[in-house]
Amino acid sequence: MKKSANPKVPLIDLSGQQKSVQGEIDRSLRRIFSSQRFILGEYGSLLEQKVAQKIKARHAIGVANGSDALYLALLALGVGNGDEVITTPFTFFATAGAISRTGAVPVFVDIDPLTFNLDPAAIGARVSKKTKAILPVHLFGLPCDMEGILKIAKQFSLPVVEDAAQSYGATFRGSQTGSMGDIGCFSFYPTKNLGGAGDGGIMTTSSPELAEKLKLLRNHGSRVKYKHEIVGINSRLDEIQAAVILAKLKRIDRWNSARCKHAKYYEKALGDLPLQLPANVPGLKSTYHLYSILSDRRDQLQQHLEARGIGCGVYYPLPLHLQPCYQWLGYRRGDLPISESTAEKIISLPMYAEMIARQLNTVVDAVRDFFKQ
Ligand SMILES: *Cc1c(COP(=O)(O)O)cnc(C)c1O
């Protein structure tokens, strides 16, 4: 993450959040250490229960990180060597990396220019005999057009894995992200809108069969010690992470609401400038994991903000179809033009629940000053 030295307003600051949960975390840690149960214990089970309740999925299964959540979700659906999975090129690398780890190939489809999410209208043309799943990402916390995606998935009888790593608590017409596809995948990486004190993740599903398979896959295919029904991996969520996330879970709705309020503030204060602000789609509730805007003069704007002590970042500068590791797939610049132009114009402004009015104003003033030059 690129930051200027001692920024006046950092891109993200987790210290306020930390303070509000410190007492509870201290108590939980003491309990974990005295029980000496560090893996697959009471905190992990309780977290799985609470997340399933909140997401309105029948099952939640903790894993070591969000990348593994995606990988195991695809494995559970039978994705493997020679298969294809349709996804967006405008996401964090882990989305496509999970597909590659199964032996399948990511098939990149362009995004919607306003939401930056997978465009359902572009999917059909890329479905082939090898397609085994669709993997949409609720980027920056804004839910995808799940109606469109589920419709095309149904038409081709394809399962859907939702990458909800940035969208814990976001809703599409009242439904939680992670509850609408066959499996939802969340990350608890510290800077996610719901983050732990290290790596962590969770998978959600309402299918008892998939839940059973996911539980096996995360624990070397073993239900009973030293009996291995299938070949899985070690990807368990440890008790310490589960305890930290449980403490934060009680406050996540409040934090998500605060982020929405900050977003509204930015929208009002920046709406008249030559910028594209995050899409405001009726019926969709974003977590604003990041507040990302488009500017034709992105690089100058970034320099200007950094010089003024405003933390900002570019997520993501190079779409995945143009990454060196995927050169062999044969994509060229120009193939997915919306992803490419978005990557050239995008910049994220400071966003975290504990931001105060003065900090928001400092950011707004700095952005407005840029356009006065
Ligand atoms: C963070 C993230 C992941 C991966 O999660 P980790 O816990 O870091 O492995 C996957 N997809 C997206 C969109 C992410 O932002």
Based on helices, strands and strand pairing, what is the structural class? alpha/beta
User: Which CATH class of the largest domain is shown?
Assistant: Alpha Beta
CATH superfamily of the largest domain: Type I PLP-dependent aspartate aminotransferase-like (Major domain)
Low-pLDDT windows of residues:
none
Q: Strand percentage, roughly? A: 5-15%
**Rounded Rg:** 21 Å
Intertermini distance: 28 Å
Q: Write the element-wise H/E pattern from the N-terminal end onward.
A: HHEHEHEEHEEEEEHHHEEHHEH
Strand order of the largest sheet: 1-9-8-5
Average pLDDT for all residues: 96
CATH architecture type of the largest domain: 3-Layer(aba) Sandwich
Number of helical segments with 4 or more residues: 11
**Into which percent range does the helicity of residues fall?**
25-40%
Taken together, the total number of domains comes to 2
Bound molecules: pyridoxal-5'-phosphate
Number of extended strands: 12
Reported for the largest beta sheet, the result is: 4 strands, mixed
Q: Outline, from the CA principal axes? A: globular
- CATH topology-level name of the largest domain: Aspartate Aminotransferase, domain 2
Structure, explained:
This protein is α/β, with parallel strands linked by helices and 373 residues long. The model has no long low-confidence stretch (mean pLDDT 96). The radius of gyration is 21 Å and the shape is globular. The two termini are 28 Å apart. Helix content is 37%, strand content 12%. Helix 2 (42-55) packs across helix 7, helix 3 (66-76) packs across helix 4 and helix 8 packs parallel to helix 11. The strands form 4 sheets. Strands 1-9-8-5 form a 4-stranded mixed beta sheet. The protein has a 3-stranded parallel beta sheet with strand order 3-2-4, covered by helices on one side. The protein has 2 domains: 16-249, Aspartate Aminotransferase, domain 2, CATH 3.40.640.10; 252-370, Aspartate Aminotransferase, domain 1, CATH 3.90.1150.10. It has helices at residues 15-35, 42-55, 66-76, 94-101, 146-155, 208-217, 239-249, 252-270, 298-307, 337-345, 357-372, and strands spanning 59-63, 84-87, 105-108, 131-135, 161-163, 171-172, 175-176, 183-187, 201-205, 284-285, 291-294, 346-349. It has 11 helices and 12 strands. Pyridoxal-5'-phosphate (PLP) is lined by residues 65-67, 91-92, 94-95, 137, 163, 165-166, 187, 189, 199, 201. Pyridoxal-5'-phosphate is lined by residues 65-67, 91-92, 94-95, 137, 163, 165-166, 187, 189, 199, 201.
